[in-house]
Amino acid sequence: MFMPYRWLLACGLAFASSGAWAAPALQHFQHEQVLGTSLRMQVAGTTPAAAEAAHAAALAEIARLDAVFSTWRDDSELSRLNHAQAAMAVSPELRHVLAQCEHWRQASDGAFSCRLGGPLQTWRAAAAGTQLPDRVQLRQQARALAQLEPQVDAATLLPLPGLQWQVDGIAKGYILDRALQQARHAAPDAQGIALDIGGD
Length: 200
Fold this sequence. Notes:
By secondary structure, the protein is of the alpha+beta class. Helix content is about 50%, strand content about 15%. The chain has helices at about 5-20, 50-70, 75-80, 90-105, 115-130, 135-145, 170-185; strands spanning about 25-35, 35-45, 90, 155, 190-195.
């Protein structure tokens, strides 16, 4: 037996007005200059206090990992590794991302590489001037970097001649995943959390 359409519509409106079908409340957060770009965050289905706790936890994790992976900061762990003159102890987070970099370099047959910090600096210097880098020199530099065999799974890493790690192609996604984990831990009752960090 089918119920009349008008009766079903009336029931639907009654549930909606009582809140049974209402969408979970959204708390919105937005910041500029997070990892050099904008951050937007939404937390659904929890209290404003819990949403703020999730927001604070995400920002804290982003700041912590930015201090590990940034090549725009001279004091970051990665910058210190890139300029190290001797073996350096590195964090598990940096080892993990470098291992992922090397995995995808091999899987892509070199089409993706985090070893190109040196050539990138050459291009940035050229962008500030009026002369393009020498193509032959760039090719020679890239070939030399491709032939290196860095060890990235040890607690202490050795610097290699000419190797400047540039992990932006992986690190931003890794940071975003970790920030989401911390946000969920801070607000376990939230029905949904969305994080968006713009950029390349």
